[in-house]
């Protein structure tokens, strides 16, 4: 095991991967394990199949997900970093609830771009019992996510966004209310940029100029016109229409330099409060931005409503 003390205090993976426990729950993972130069048990994180097997073991051992599988070309995300976002969102809600962390299905969460992996609803429901709605523009991703829910007998609502130009429109109904929205937006502006980004990562890893990602990813998961800033800007613009139907809107922001234009836009739409929460996993630093149109005293009351 290796220790990653930069993860959230409630993150189950804060002390690293316990491969003895993981292999016990998922014996098939053992075929992908090896010893590092330091003598620790690990896997080859450049190997797509090994990363998939690790995710399956983590979800089974820590989150009671007995079945999880996705098509080979779809995004296979790192579980510790993804669940860190969930824990920090729990703290964000707690800041409006006298620092008491909220559990239970009365907390409604909307996951934009849930993907075939549906990792945020799976981990968030396990950790906090929240009720999740997952949305995606890819029919195959929704179908696979539905199968995962059915196999694990999970009550997660899934919606297909039929208009790729929309984010909240066509998803949030007139009588819906969500306490949190979350999103891991596509960060490249074009397929070419996504390919170059992949090649740069492989080169940094000493693997030449391969174009295949070890964690996969469909086009809609990796790029969109205008890239991350344009996607989140659209999200901000549309969030105004649903200002009274959501307590906190949020999105990951991959590049720190992207925050400045987003702050300006949030000021323009008159968000009542904006927060940027820093996160870290190992050497990788990440963050998410959160905004609300509801005043703090009203947010506390919104947390008590039964929706």
CATH architecture, please?
A: 3-Layer(aba) Sandwich
**Radius of gyration, rounded?**
19 Å
The structure class reads alpha/beta
Give the CA-CA distance, first to last residue. Answer: 42 Å
Major beta sheet summary = 7 strands, mixed
Label the overall shape.
globular
Structure report:
The structure is a single chain. With 307 residues, this protein is of the alpha/beta class. It has a single domain, classed as Rossmann fold. It is 36% helix and 17% strand. It has 10 helices and 9 strands. The strands form 2 sheets. Strands 5-4-3-6-7-9-8 form a 7-stranded mixed beta sheet, with helices on both faces. A two-stranded antiparallel ribbon has the order 1-2. β1 and β2 form a beta hairpin. α1 crosses α2 and α8 packs parallel to α9. The chain starts with 18 loop residues before the first helix and ends with a helix. The relative contact order is 0.13. About 7% of the residues have low confidence.
Q: Helix and strand layout, with pairings?
A:
Blueprint: H1 19-25, E1 33-35, E2 41-43, H2 48-63, H3 79-94, E3 108-112, H4 119-128, E4 131-136, H5 139-151, E5 157-160, E6 178-183, H6 191-204, H7 219-222, H8 227-239, E7 246-252, H9 259-268, E8 273-281, E9 284-292, H10 296-304
Parallel strand pairs: 3-4, 3-6, 4-5, 6-7
Antiparallel strand pairs: 1-2, 7-9, 8-9
């Amino acid at each position: 095991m290796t220790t990653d003390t930069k993860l959230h205090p409630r993150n189950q993976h804060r002390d690293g991967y316990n491969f003895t426990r993981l292999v016990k729950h998922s014996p098939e993972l053992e075929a992908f394990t090896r010893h590092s130069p330091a003598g620790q048990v690990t896997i080859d994180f450049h190997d797509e199949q090994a990363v998939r097997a690790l995710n399956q073991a983590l979800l089974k051992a820590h989150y009671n997900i007995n079945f999880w599988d996705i098509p080979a070309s779809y995004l296979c995300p790192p579980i510790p970093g993804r669940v860190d976002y969930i824990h920090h969102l729990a703290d964000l809600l707690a800041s409006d609830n006298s620092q008491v962390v909220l559990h239970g299905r009365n907390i409604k969460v909307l996951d934009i771009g849930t993907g075939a992996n549906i990792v945020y609803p799976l981990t968030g429901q396990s950790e906090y019992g929240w009720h999740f709605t997952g949305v995606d523009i890819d029919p195959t991703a929704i179908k696979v996510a539905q199968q995962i829910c059915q196999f694990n007998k999970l009550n997660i609502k899934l919606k297909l966004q039929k208009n790729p130009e929309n984010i909240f429109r066509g998803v949030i109904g007139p009588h819906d209310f969500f306490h949190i929205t979350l999103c891991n937006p596509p960060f490249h502006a074009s397929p070419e940029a996504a390919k170059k980004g992949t090649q740069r990562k492989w080169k940094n890893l000493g693997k030449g100029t391969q174009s295949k990602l070890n964690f996969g990813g469909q086009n809609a998961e990796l790029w969109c016109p205008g890239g991350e800033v344009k996607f989140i800007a659209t999200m901000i613009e549309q969030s105004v229409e649903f200002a009274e139907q959501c307590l906190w809107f949020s999105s990951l922001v991959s590049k720190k330099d992207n925050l400045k234009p987003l702050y300006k836009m949030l000021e323009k739409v008159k968000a009542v409060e904006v927060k940027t929460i820093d996160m870290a996993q190992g050497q990788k630093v990440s963050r998410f931005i959160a905004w609300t149109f509801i005043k703090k005293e009203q947010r506390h009351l919104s947390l008590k409503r039964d929706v």
